[in-house]
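About this split. The held-out portion is used to measure sequence recovery: a designer receives only the structure tokens and must propose an amino acid at every position. Recovery is the fraction of positions where the proposal matches the reference. Here is one held-out target exactly as it appears in the evaluation file.
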């Protein structure tokens, strides 16, 4: 398999730090296409209130989580979906070939955090389902996201907390099974694609 420097950077970050921040995973034009796909869903009023837990014990608890989501379907023939899953599938193939992670499934959704919402500290795996291996977030916010807008991702590590600002086009990938994290309160709408690479 031909060496991919972006994917190698991701592997190095995951191996050495359990997380990685990549600002050139998608080009500026690709980020605009992804953002337009999200706005199309928003215009169709297709977002739903998010819940905690998985399908066996799903609950909406706004004191813990305040975002709205729309699940992405890889079979849906839209330019944004095709672009996103092509890049993710390329990454999965590279990870499986070079690191033998055994990624076999994936699930992703658009996420919208209205003003004043947040997601309290949590882990991305469930007690009855440990298949999530890597978490991936791609930020689709407006240009020039300022610190006062909030919405930071905070990753909690024994070596010290890591604060990541949700700048447009930024991709964050981290270990789903070990890293607790939270989304700080947002002061204006915060957009992203969020999801997981899963083993069988």
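Reference sequence for scoring:
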């Amino acid at each position: 398999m031909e060496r991919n420097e972006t994917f190698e950077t991701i592997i190095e970050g995951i191996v050495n730090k359990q997380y990685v921040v990549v600002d050139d995973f998608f080009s500026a034009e690709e980020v605009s296409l992804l953002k337009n796909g999200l706005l199309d869903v928003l215009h169709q009023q297709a977002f739903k209130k998010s819940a905690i837990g998985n399908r066996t014990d799903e609950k909406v608890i706004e004191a813990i989580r305040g975002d709205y989501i729309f699940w992405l379907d890889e079979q849906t023939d839209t330019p944004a979906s095709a672009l996103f899953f092509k890049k993710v599938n390329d990454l999965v193939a590279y990870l499986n070939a070079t690191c033998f992670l055994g990624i076999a499934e994936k699930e992703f959704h658009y996420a919208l955090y209205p003003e004043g919402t947040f997601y309290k500290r949590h882990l991305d795996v469930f007690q009855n389902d440990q298949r999530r291996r890597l978490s991936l977030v791609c930020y689709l916010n407006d240009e020039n996201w300022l610190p006062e807008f909030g919405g930071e991702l905070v990753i909690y590590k024994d070596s010290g907390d890591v604060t990541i600002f949700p700048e447009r086009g930024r991709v964050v990938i981290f270990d789903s099974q070990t890293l607790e994290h939270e989304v700080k309160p947002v002061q204006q709408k915060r957009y992203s694609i969020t999801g997981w690479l899963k083993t069988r």
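Annotator remark: The longest strand covers residues 105-113.
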